[in-house]
Amino acid sequence: MADIRQLLAHALKEHFGFDHFKGNQEAIMTNLMMGRDSFVLMPTGGGKSLCYQLPALLLEGTAIVISPLIALMKNQVDAMRNFSEADSVAHFLNSSLNKAAVDEVKTDIRAGRTKLLYVAPESLTKEDNIEFLKSIKISFYAIDEAHCISEWGHDFRPEYRRIRPIINEIGPRPIIALTATATPKVQHDIQKNLGILNCDLFKSSFNRENLFYEIRPKTKNTDREIIKFIRSNTGKSGIIYCLSRKKVEELAEFLKINGIKALPYHAGMDGLTRSANQDAFLLENVDVIVATIAFGMGIDKPDVRFVIHYDMPKSLEGYYQETGRAGRDGGEGRCITFYSAKDLQKMEKFMQGKPVTEQEIGKQLLVETASYAESSVCRRKTLLHYFGEEYKEDNCGNCDNCINPKKRVEAKDDLLAVIETVTALKEKFKADHIINVMRGKATADVKSYGHDELEVFGCAETSDERYLNAVIRQAIISGYLDRDIENFGILHVTAEGKKFLQNPKSFKIVEDNDFSEEEEEAVLKGGASCAVDPELYNILKDLRKKVAKKLDLPPYVVFQDFSLEAMATTYPISIEELQNITGVGAGKAKRYGEEFVKVIKKHVEDNEIERPEDLRVRSVANKSKQKISIIQAIDRRVPLDELAEAHGLEFGELLDEIEAIMYSGSKINISYYINEVIDPDVQEEIFDYFKRTEQDDLQAAIDELGADYTEDEIRLMRIKFLSELGY
Q: The domain that contains 689 carries what CATH number?
C-alpha cells in the first residue's frame, strides 16, 4: 500500500501539477488501485473526477467512465487532453460521433493509447459497443453522477439502472460510483442497483462553509430584485437557474436589455449555440448565464460568485448540487432562492399522469424542499441533516436565518402532543394527517380511519398548521422523530422521542418563515416600505385617488400599488420611461400618465434628486412568439379553450399568459368568448364587484364570489374589467 501511495503522489505531481491530495482523494485512489469497489460521496468542487482520472493513467487497460451528458463528456475529455501530450489519452463514444470518428476512437483504444473512455449509458447498451468492449482490457468502471441511478435521486435516468447487467455481460471489473448529492436512501439504492453493497464508502462532509444560503419570497418584483443584486455585484460571475426554457429566454433577454452581459442555456437550443454560450461564460465574455438544470454538470469554473434560483428546485439534492457551483475556489458564494408555495403546487400538478410511485416520490421530495424553504432553523443544519450529517452549531453565521435569528419559543408541551398523536396513530401516517388530527380537522381521511374518535383528536385545535409543522420539522432535526423517506414520509418516534415522552425537558423552537400569499402581497404592495422614496410614493398615492375619483374608478384600475412603488424608486419623468414600469405599459401610460410624470418631475427638481440610472429597470419588448400567437388568435376570436389546447397549456396557464399580456400594456378583448360561456347576469354581478372593491385582490374576489361562480369565470371577468377600464 505504501508503494501505491508513493506512486500516486509522484503521478499527481507529474500529470496534474499538484503537491497534495484533497480530503479523501488519496484513500479513494489507493482503494481503486487495489481493485476494490468504491462509493464516493463528495460535494461539488471536492475533486471527484481526479479520483478516477489519475488511477486510469496508472493502471493497465482503459477505464470506462459512464457519464450522463454529452457536454459533460466533452469537457472532461478536453480537460484530460490538456494534461497530456497526446489527444488519444481520452475519448468519448456517443451519438454525436460519425462512423469515421468512432473507428478512430476504437483504433486508439486497441493500440493501448487511450486510458479513459467516456460513454453515455445509452451508448453502452448498443450491441456493437458491447462486443467491442468485450474485446479490450478494461481497468475499471467509473459511474459518474451516480445519483441518476436512484428513483429517489434528483435526476433519475432509467437507462442508468441497466448498467450492472451490461457490466456483467462485458466482463466484471472494479466499480467506482461517484456523486455529489445522495441522501442515505439514495446511497443505498445506488449500491444495491450496482451490486456493490460491500464496497468501501468514502463520504466527505457536505458542509460548504463559504456558501451563504438565503431564501426570499417570490413576487412580481423578483426580476427587478435580480437586476439590483447583479448591478451591486458588477463583474462577478453568476448562474441563474429557471425551471422552464421559456423563462430562461425571457430572463436572459431582460438582463441584456438592462445592460447585463448575460446569455441563455437550455437543452432546447441547438448544440452549437449552447456550446458557444457555455464557452462565453467560461471565458468570461459574459458575466451571467441563465439556464435550466441542464447547465453546470462538470463545469469547472471555480469563481462563480453567486447562484440564483428563480424557481425553487424540485428536490434538495438538486438545490444542493446547483448551489454547489458557487465558490468552488473557497471564495465568496451567495446562493439566493426565490420561493413561492405556488411553484411547488404547479410542479406537483405536472406529475399527474406519471406512474403512482413516481408521483409519490416526487411529492415527498417537494415536501422536503418546502420544509427547507419555510424553516427558520439554520439552513446549514437543515441541509446537512437531510444528507445524513449532523451539524452541531446552532448558528452558522452564514445564512439568512442565522444572520436574522427569530426568537425561540418553548414547545415542550406541543412536542409531547405530537409524539402522543404519532404513537396513537400507530406510526403509520405523514405529517399532514397528524396535524389534521391534532387540530381537530375531520377530513375525509381522518374520518375514514376513525381518527376523529381518538382522545388525541383536537388536542392542539388552537395551534395553526404552520406552527405544528415547525414543531415536527425541528423535532426531526433534534432526533425525536424520524421521517421514513422510503415510505413516503411516514413519521416514527425514535428512541430519543420515547425517552422524551417518559422524561420531558425544555424544547425550544423558532417558528417557520411565512411565505403565504398575504406576505407576498405585502411585499408586492408594501408601498412606502418598499419604495426608495416614501414621500413621493404617498404623493403618487394621493394623485391616483384623485384621478380615480374623477373617473369613477377604483384606484387600482389606474395604477396598482407595485407600479407606484416602482415609480417612487426609478423616477420616470417622461411617458416613454413611464411605460417601462411594471404593470403600466404603453396604453396606461398614455391614458393616465401625464399628471403622474409631471408630479414626479417636479418632485425630482424640488428635491434636487439625481436620478440613479442604475436603479432603472427596463422592460423587454414583448417579442415572445407564444404571446404574439395568443394575441393574434384572440383577434381572430379563437375560443380560449381551443387556444389553450393548441399551445399545450392548462386553461389557468392561458389566463396567466393573457394577464401578463394585459399588464404589459396590450389591450385584450375576450368578450366574444365570455359572451359564449358566461351568462349576462353573472357577467354583470362579477363586473360590479370589481368596480366597487378597493383592492385588486384576486384571491379576495374568489373567496367572496367563489360560492356562486368558478375561479375561471372570476378571472375572465377581471381581465375584461381591467382591459376595458384600465388600458
A: 1.10.10.1390
- Same domain, residue pair 592 and 701: no
Going by C-beta distance under 8 Å and a sequence separation of 6 or more, which residues neighbour residue 188?
A: none
Across the strands, what pairs with 116? Answer: 63, 90
Whether 358 is in a domain gets the answer no
Inter-residue contact 50 to 230 (CB < 8 Å): no
Beta-strand (E) ranges in 432-568? Answer: 481-484, 490-493, 508-510
Q: Are residues 81 and 167 in the same domain?
A: yes
What's the rounded Cα separation, in Å, for the pair 208 and 398?
10
Task: Taking residues 526-548, report their average pLDDT.
Answer: 76
Q: Is the dihedral of CA 29, 30, 33, 34 positive or negative?
A: negative
CA 701 to chain centre: 31
**pLDDT tens per residue across span 27-37:** 999 999 999 99
Q: Across the beta sheet with 138-143, what order do the strands follow?
A: 90-93, 116-119, 62-66, 138-143, 175-179, 38-41, 200-203
Identity of residue 372: Y
DSSP code at position 15: I
Check if the beta carbon of residue 306 is closer than 8 Å to that of residue 333. yes
Name, in order, each residue with C-beta under 8 angstroms of 566's C-beta and a sequence gap of 6 or more.
221, 224, 581, 582, 583, 617
Given a contact cutoff of 8 angstroms between Cβ atoms, the answer to whether 241 and 292 are in contact is yes
Judge contact between 400 and 379, C-beta under 8 A. yes
Task: Say if strands 138-143 and 200-203 run parallel, antiparallel, or are unpaired.
Answer: unpaired
Give the torsion sign (CA, 201, 162, 114, 46).
negative
Alpha carbon distances (Å) from 419 to 430, 478, 481, 524, 531: 13, 13, 8, 39, 46
Residues facing 335 on adjacent strands: 213, 307
Task: Give the DSSP letter of residue 399.
Answer: B
CA dihedral sign, ordered 435, 438, 441, 446: positive
Residue 306 φ then ψ, to 5°: -150, 145
Q: Which amino acid is at 150?
A: S
Report angle CA 23, 308, 366 to the nearest 5 degrees: 85
- Do 169 and 216 belong together in one domain? no
Residue scoring higher pLDDT (219 or 142): 142
Predicted TM-score (pTM) of the model is 0.66
User: For residue 555, what is the domain's CATH number?
Assistant: 1.10.150.80
For 22, the grid coordinates are: 484533497
Cell numbers that stand for 12 in this block: 499527481
- What is the rounded CA–CA span in Å between residue 519 and residue 155? 32
Q: How many Å apart are CA 44 and CA 335, to the nearest integer?
A: 14
Local structure of 636: helix, strand or coil: coil
DSSP letter string, 69-100:
-HHHHHHHHHHHHHTSS-GGGEEEESTT--HH
Q: Cα separation of 514 and 522, whole Å?
A: 12
Dist CA 642 CA 308 (whole Å)? 36
Please classify residue 600 by burial: count the beta carbons closer than 10 Å to its beta carbon, then call 0-12 exposed, 13-18 middle and 19+ buried.
buried
What SS3 class is residue 62?
Answer: strand
Over residues 620-668, the pLDDT tens digits come to: 554 456 777 888 888 889 899 888 888 778 888 888 888 877 776 667 8
Range of the domain at 402: 375-524
**E strands, 248-376, in order:** 262-265, 288-291, 304-309, 333-339
Cβ within 8 Å of residue 82, ≥6 positions away? none
Going 151 to 157 to 158 to 159, the CA torsion angle's sign is negative
Angle in degrees, CA 186, 192, 194, rounded to 5? 100
Q: How many CB atoms lie within 10 A of CB 10?
A: 11
In this structure, are 154 and 272 located in the same domain?
Answer: no
pLDDT at 30: 94
Q: How many residues does the chain have?
A: 727
Count of domains for the chain: 5
Measured from the Cβ of residue 127, the count of other Cβ atoms closer than 10 Å reads 7
